[in-house]
Design goal:
Blueprint: H1 14-25, H2 30-36, H3 41-45, H4 49-59, H5 63-68, E1 72-75, E2 78-81, E3 84-87, E4 96-98, H6 100-109, E5 134-136, H7 148-151, H8 156-166, H9 173-182, H10 189-192, H11 196-212, H12 223-237, H13 240-253, H14 264-276, H15 286-298, E6 306-307, E7 310-311, E8 317-318, H16 320-327, H17 331-340, E9 354-355, H18 356-368, E10 369-371, H19 375-379, H20 383-391, E11 397-400, E12 409-414, H21 415-427, E13 430-432, H22 442-449, H23 453-461, E14 469-471, E15 480-481, H24 484-494, H25 500-506, H26 511-520, E16 530-533, E17 540-543, H27 546-555, E18 556-557, H28 559-566, H29 570-580, H30 588-591, E19 596-597
Parallel strand pairs: 13-14
Antiparallel strand pairs: 1-2, 2-3, 4-5, 6-7, 8-9, 10-12, 11-12, 14-15, 16-17, 18-19
């Protein structure tokens, strides 16, 4: 054993300790000492177990103390560091890393010491002095022994100048986490569940994406860039899957308005490439699963497409274009219907994702649609009756465009909805071969009872009329015959208050807007509806309380009513409202019309 005995510093690396012994005993480079004691220098440079044991024997220290501060090779480019398996990329080699302030203190106290934490690539800031560590690339073959006395010749004022140039910064939370974990302390659960390599690499790569963007080339990043990336990424990885998803979705949202159909490689760039083609980190860890799910949940990909090495067994999302191709539909028509169904926004980007099930359901509806102009023939009735069916929501129009959108029109109706309505009417009607004098068509019965034709249809569907027949060989409303006396008898019960057409007419609004107000109930600006429930089958007839309609009209108004009241052009009314700062209580984008509170309008604005 060497004498005199010099203790091993708990913060020192084994290589540094060997270099210090060489200076204290022989004042020669560490290579000479190692060879004198039959320690192969190249083995000592990589902290080989046999080299550490021999060094411990000759120095009289515990080999466990040396091993605790060294990354011990256990395989090709794989090391054991305090029970954690890490790769070569986790280590700072081949760079010699040091803190000039620590070296200045060492110079005052004695020989310089290389701290074991400096051997970790993620350690970039001195925790004691809070300055960036300096990195020196190897220039000679023996620089791999990191002898600080030789590699950093600066002393005194020169060293002080290096300290001043370094600047100040706190230790990054990622660096703190890694060192604490190697000291045996628990950290955030998700990070602790990853290998140290995976936790560090995924945090830094995510930080690079967020701080520098997808186009960043990783080799161009400096040590300071990586330090900043680790700080940014740790804000998210420390919160586990929730935080990581939040970060990835924030990046995804940046491409909401992008032209074309950007894929995962375009959106996530350097992060995607590192996850998909990592050479140094064969298994990126759980972040790959999270990233894969974010991609497949937000980007339309065909079945069989490989996402980070995993094949997509079935398509999960469509774009308008891919859905149109699959369903053999015109993409413009399909887009209009998807907008009307609320599946996509008014002017979506080309890559806007559509859930497969939802998209196919809408597409099948498009295939079943009947144009409004063809409804009279499909239902076998007059155009006024078709309008009444729409007004009472016995059939629902498919609109192109959202409420308030320019050119919003009803274009079609689902063929299945028509079939269901006609089927219900036929189901409650007996079939008769010939006409009879006491039974008349629906429109004629409505005329005699002084009700609307749609009210007669409500009576049929509600089971009020016992004598309803359908002429054999004919279909639809035109084939029905009813007893006008029965219609008269039930008219009072089926027509209390106002019909939708009467209520919406009193408010001077189109029926589409009227039903939007009904659908908003019980919000502030909305209309309550009274349903006449027909006991036999539960059919409901929509009616409105006149008092509620009157009350709504007294509380809320729109520009057309204001213009009529003050004999102004609608454009002039809109201009005066905007200039005065009066805001609507519900907007055109919500229901198709701007509504204002009556008591919020001053008469002087329109005088």
């Amino acid at each position: 054993m060497l004498a005199p005995h010099f203790p091993f510093d708990a913060q020192e690396s084994p290589l540094s300790y060997a270099a210090r012994l060489a200076m204290l005993h022989t004042e020669d480079p560490v290579v000479s000492l190692l060879r004198d004691f039959e320690i192969r220098p190249e083995k000592m440079a990589i902290n080989d177990e046999t080299a550490l044991r021999r060094l411990a024997d000759i120095a009289g220290v515990a080999v466990g103390d040396l091993r605790a501060n060294a990354a011990i090779p256990v395989g090709t480019r794989t090391y054991d560091l305090r029970g954690e398996l890490v790769t070569a990329e986790f280590l700072a080699n081949p760079y010699t890393v040091f803190c000039p302030a620590c070296l200045a203190e060492d110079d005052q106290a004695g020989l310089r010491r290389g701290r074991w934490v400096w051997t970790l690539s993620v350690v970039r800031t001195c925790p004691q002095h809070e300055i960036p560590l300096l990195r020196q690339a190897p220039l000679a073959w023996d620089d791999k022994f990191h002898e600080l006395d030789r590699l950093v010749p600066e002393r005194g004022d020169e060293l002080q100048a290096m300290i001043e140039r370094a600047g100040q910064r706190s230790v990054s939370p990622l660096q703190d986490y890694v060192v604490r974990r190697l000291d045996g302390n628990a950290g955030p659960k998700w990070l602790d569940a990853q290998t140290l390599d995976q936790a560090t690499r995924s945090t830094e790569l995510l930080g690079v994406l967020l701080a520098h963007g997808p186009a960043q080339k990783l080799p161009d990043l400096t040590s300071d860039h990586w330090d900043h990336a680790g700080r940014v990424g740790f804000e998210f990885t420390s919160r586990g899957e929730v935080g990581i998803r939040e970060a990835l979705m924030a990046q995804f949202r940046k491409f909401d308005d992008a032209t074309g159909t950007p894929g995962a490689r375009k959106i996530f760039g350097c992060f995607y490439n590192a996850m998909a083609h990592s050479k140094s980190l064969k298994d990126p860890g759980d972040i790959a699963r999270i990233f894969r799910e974010v991609i497949t949940e937000n980007i339309a990909l065909p079945a069989g497409y490989k996402v980070l090495g995993v094949e997509l067994t079935e398509r999960r999302l469509h774009t308008v274009a891919s859905l149109a191709r699959e369903q053999d539909l015109d993409p413009r028509t399909l887009s209009h219907v998807l907008v009307a169904a609320g599946v996509i926004p008014e002017k979506p980007p080309a890559h806007y994702p559509i859930p497969v099930g939802q998209g196919r359901e809408v597409a099948s509806g498009v295939k079943r649609t009947v144009n409004v102009i063809s409804l009279c023939k499909e239902v076998n009735c007059t155009r006024p009756i078709v309008d009444q069916l729409f007004a009472e929501r016995l059939i629902t129009p498919i609109f192109y465009g959202r409420p308030g959108a320019k050119g919003r029109t009803q274009k079609a109706v689902d063929r299945e909805e028509i079939a269901m309505l006609v089927g219900k009417l036929h189901a409650v009607s007996a079939t008769r071969d010939t006409e009879t004098d006491d039974l008349v068509p629906v429109s004629k019965a409505a005329e005699k009872a002084k009700v609307s034709a749609v009210t007669v249809l409500h009576m049929i569907l509600g089971g009020f009329l016992d004598r309803t027949v359908r002429l054999a060989g004919q279909n639809g409303i035109g084939a029905l015959r009813v007893d006008p006396l029965e219609v008269k008898r039930h008219a009072g019960f089926c027509t209390p208050g106002l019909s939708p057409s009467e209520a919406f007419g009193a408010l001077k609004i189109p029926r589409g807007i009227g039903w939007c107000l009904v659908d908003r109930y019980p919000k502030e600006v909305s209309l309550a509806i009274n349903w006449v429930v027909c006991p036999p089958g539960g059919h409901r007839i929509p009616r409105f309380d006149p008092a509620i309609v009157t009350d709504f009209k007294s509380q809320f108004t729109h520009t057309a009513r204001i213009a009529q009241k003050y004999d102004l052009q609608i454009g002039e009314v809109i201009g005066r409202l905007k200039r005065s700062g009066v805001r609507p209580v519900v907007t055109k984008s919500e229901i198709g019309l701007d509504y204002y509170r009556v008591d919020g309008l001053e008469t002087r604005l329109f005088a």
